[in-house]
User: Fold this.
Amino acid sequence: MADFEDGDPGEQRYQRLPPEVYRRRRIVAALIALVVIGLVVWGVVFAVQRISAGLGGGGAEASAVETEDNNFASFSARPTSSGGGSAEPSGTASGSASADPSSSAGPSATGEGSESPEPSESPGESGGPEESPSADPAAQVQACGDSISVAASVNQESYAPGQSPVITATVANDSENPCTVDPAGQVQYVITSGPAQVYDSRACGAAPEGGQEQTLEPGAEASQESTWNRGMTAYGCGEAATPAEPGYYWVTASVDGVASEPQLIRIEG
Assistant:
């Protein structure tokens, strides 16, 4: 290569550019190539989608037409009304005389049709209601248990010498179902004075005289009365029982483990 003098245009023409310039050019060219490739791919995908959509629409229309034709074909084979036009399809399907419109509309056909379901339904329907009344309703009622509330009351506010308090226990059914209870046989009276228990209706071993069980409807009540002879069973039973001294006493009635609120008994002499 010939030497060039300073300032010669040929030297400026063949002078190499910095590497950074070539690198930027390569990057720009690569980006342009990627954009072109992306546009080409997008165009191909769009064209394929358009072609497939056109083919699918034609297939859907063809299937819809075929389905509509099939529906009308099956519909024509079914009885459309109860008139004469339905006699042939129903006759061919069932193959029995009851498919004839004239025979089904006549009194004899309706009579046979109504008689056949009645014997089959009547035993099933009559069997259930007839068996339930035959059962004993009292046997199905359960004991009240703890679904009751008990209240105690006395017949006077205070008692003079020689007067015996009459205590009443009232049992109420708090449940939503009927239940049975025997107030006379299940009630227990306990009388206390301060912390000391002075009387227990079952302390002396005397079994309570049970009465007939009563069926209490929801919200119904039953009562039982008992007289306290003012004897304190804590100190003996019968004639040996010590009589209660004048003072304040509290009586509690309980039935089947359910106790009432204490009720005041005031003895004045």
